[in-house]
Write a structure and sequence with these properties.
The protein is α/β, with parallel strands linked by helices and about 350 residues long. The protein has 12 helices and 11 strands. The termini are far apart. The structure holds 6-O-phosphono-beta-D-fructofuranose. 6-O-phosphono-beta-D-fructofuranose binds near residues 103, 127 and 223.
């Protein structure tokens, strides 16, 4: 009898997931596997929501954003009976392997399911935050930064016209990759990331200098920064213990402070979920596709407990536990590079 594999996408969606699903399904068919799409991430695994994936379901999705399977931030280890129900559904669906596409949280669960419950799982790294260890880049990142760069350049135009300080707040959660790359690629005058202490006075002195020179200035800030002296608001946590950051609107707080300290008119914009939608870039289409194909190869080779990864230009596989052990944050080398342009 043909083998059956399941695919699920968990956590925040990102461009590149559909190419990855297409890659995995197309490759699975080369091995003669049947493929079952699990709907809405682990929620669907717990609730037994699934549908067979055929060629017609995937052959036109390479350029489509989001995930055709749907997603959720549900953690089976946090739901009453979640793990038992998941295992029951894996058995009921007769899955010989499960491909879990996700970030730190989804892959963390995949790793536990593999280690603690012997689920035959393979991981595919995705996240617009690019904060997963053991892989050079995750798909979703390139597209979201490309969109944010476009937004930054639009803010620059209006900021220049009105002689204003413009602030763009981008996503990225506890890692500053999105802000750093957006800022560098759009020629921002200051970049704020969670990995570095925020020095308001230094920033304001610099912004005044820049404004004097060119009549405006652009700041890119990560949503995850902490402004000294501002008490952390009580925020709801998701099932993975992460703060739901977007509600805090750090860009607005910064705008108030900058206006007060510099006397310069300041405006803030939050790009938010716009960053996560739309067609994937070439890079994300190719990376997603290659990761999906490799994931099906790993299942065929019974290399479970592994995650697909990008190393240089090669797609390799690494232990899942290595990928989820530590968040990949922005190091000093990158921070110093960005500062070359704070003139
Ligand atoms: O992890 C990806 C991400 O886009 C973060 O950058 C952001 O903080 C979070 O998801 C937003 O989550 P949600 O879509 O659940 O609001």
């Amino acid at each position: 009898m043909a083998k059956r594999i399941g695919i699920l996408t968990g956590g925040g969606d990102c461009p590149g997931l559909n190419p990855a699903i297409r890659g995995a399904v197309a490759r699975a068919f080369d091995y003669g596997f049947e493929v079952i799409g699990i709907l809405e991430g682990y929620k669907g695994l717990i609730e037994g929501k699934s549908k067979p994936l055929k060629l017609k379901d995937v052959e036109e999705i390479v350029g489509r954003g989001g995930t055709i399977l749907g997603t959720s931030r549900i953690n089976p280890f946090k739901e009453k009976g979640g793990v038992e129900k998941s295992l029951k559904n894996i058995k009921r669906l007769k899955l010989d392997g499960l491909i879990a596409m996700g970030g730190e949280d989804t892959l963390g669960v995949a790793n536990r399911l593999y280690k603690e419950c012997k689920v035959k799982v393979v991981g595919v790294p995705k996240t617009m935050d690019n904060d997963l260890s053991a892989t050079d880049y995750t798909f979703g990142f390139d597209t979201s930064v490309t969109i944010a760069v476009d937004a930054a350049e639009r803010l620059r135009d209006t900021g220049r016209s009105h002689r204003r300080i413009m602030i763009l707040e981008v996503m990225g959660r506890h890692a500053g990759w999105v802000a750093l790359f957006t800022g560098m690629a759009s020629g921002a005058d200051w970049i704020l990331i969670p990995e570095e202490r925020v020095d308001i006075d230094k920033m304001c002195r610099h912004l005044k200098k820049v404004h004097k020179r060119k009549n405006y200035a652009l700041v890119v800030t990560s949503e995850g920064i902490k402004i000294p002296g501002m008490g952390a608001e009580k925020e709801k946590l998701d099932q993975f213990g992460h703060m739901i950051l977007r509600k805090r609107g750090v860009g607005e707080d910064l705008a108030t402070i900058i206006k007060e300290k510099t006397g310069l008119e300041t405006r803030a914009s939050v790009i938010g979920h716009i960053q996560r939608g739309g067609p994937p870039t070439l890079f994300d289409r190719m990376l997603g596709t290659r990761c999906g194909v490799k994931a099906a190869d790993l299942v065929a080779k019974k290399k479970f407990g592994r995650m697909v990864a990008l190393r240089g230009n090669e797609i390799i596989d690494v232990p899942l536990e290595k990928a989820v052990a530590k968040l990949k944050t922005v190091d000093k080398k990158w921070r110093d590079l960005a500062k070359v342009f704070f003139k």
